[in-house]
Amino acid sequence: MVQVALIAAPSRGSEKLYGRKLLERMLLTCERAGIKQFFIRCENGEQEETKEGLGSFRGRPDIQFVDSFKGLTNGPHQLAASTPCIALEGNVVFARSQLDSMIDRYNAKPSQVLRLASTGGDLEGRVSMGPLGELLRNLQTAGAVASLAGTLPYSLDGHPADRHEAELRLAKALRHETTSTDGFMARLFDRKISWRISRRLAYGRITPNQVTIGNTVLGLVAATMFAVPGYWLRIVASLLFLISITIDGVDGELARLKMVESEFGGRLDKATDNLVHVAIFIGMAVGCYRASGSVTYLWLVGLLLGGFALCGLSVSHALRIKGAEAEEWISQVERATGRDFAYLLVLLAVIGHLEYFIWGTAFGTYIFASGLWLLTLRQRDQPGHRPQTN
Q: 221 with 240: CB under 8 angstroms?
């Protein structure tokens, strides 16, 4: 397990990318990948300048400054030559997904040395991983690890436009990181728009939670409009909901760009998503009742709420699976519970038959919940899988 990072003090460690200093961004990315101990190599006269780039890590006991990495195998540190380490050289910007990929590959074959070289800017920047002794020998051979969409790592080189280029590459990489959990329409349209919005918001003071709340209001406005009979109102409501679906990815993207993800933010996003879903379906049912006068649609509201509750239980049960192939299973569940249905709502609103969706959803939620529960039981019984326990 890789838990030690060796960082050659970046000359531009105080340069900010989306509000985070470069060195702090390096440390945060490593920490979130499981790194527990950090050694930063710099001359004594450079320590104060380097500390400026630590940001929230300043004063942390797990951050130690050393004159040379070669002394780590003796003296007070006493790290074994076989200690798995990650080494960062230059003003390198990299993605968390790349680091996770390297760690997975290294764990499969701990004796190897893996290296990712900069794909732009200063080509001397790189991310390496391997046993401490091998890294100290600065081996030139390394196992191949594919760069994420050909955009990262990227190393700042002092060019006037390099910070802008690094931020652009980070935003593009973020878009590709979500492809495994996005639905088809989300990959085809939503993410192509949301990452551009997220990138622009990342330069300002708007927080991810503010985006979540604002988008929730937009979704509730759409739900209210669905409840009012009228052909054009329904079309506008469906388009507003579609816009809300696109913006729904912005809060998470913004949080990752600014590296301010939080458990509360994740829970808020899920809670507001469910609130908007329920409001949209109730709004459509009420709208159909007011247009037709049939009380059946009011009964369908109760049926829908029961179906949503069962779907929530089934999804929660499915996401507790863990094991050798749990990541792919969870990705499939998240794709299946995506919000691509917003595009169908627009089509049904245009042809004037939103009631088809109400009837289909009222009974379809029970079919989906039952099917997902059975598939989860089958998945859980497969070798290499076990239920997640807290």
A: yes
- Tokens for 164, please give them: 């802008």
| pLDDT tens string 271-330 | 999 899 899 999 999 999 999 999 999 899 889 889 888 988 888 877 777 655 556 656
**C-alpha distances in Å from residue 157, one per residue of 117, 167, 194, 271:** 14, 14, 29, 43
Q: How many CB atoms lie within 10 A of CB 363?
A: 13
pLDDT digit string, tens, across residues 229-280: 899 999 999 999 999 999 998 999 999 999 999 999 999 998 999 899 899 9
Name the band, by pLDDT with cuts 50, 70 and 90, for residue 24: very high
**CA 159, 161, 164, 165 torsion-angle sign:** negative
Paired residues of 86 in beta bridges = 5, 129
For residues 67 and 88, give the distance between their C-alpha atoms in angstroms, rounded to a whole number.
Answer: 15
Contact 202, 265 (CB under 8 A): no
CB 28 within 8 A of CB 108: no
DSSP code string of 302-320? HHHHHHHHHHHHHHHHHTT
- Sorted by where each starts, the structural domains of the chain and their CATH numbers stand as 4-159 (3.90.550.10), 178-387 (1.20.120.1760)
**Helix (H) / strand (E) containing 244:** helix 231-247
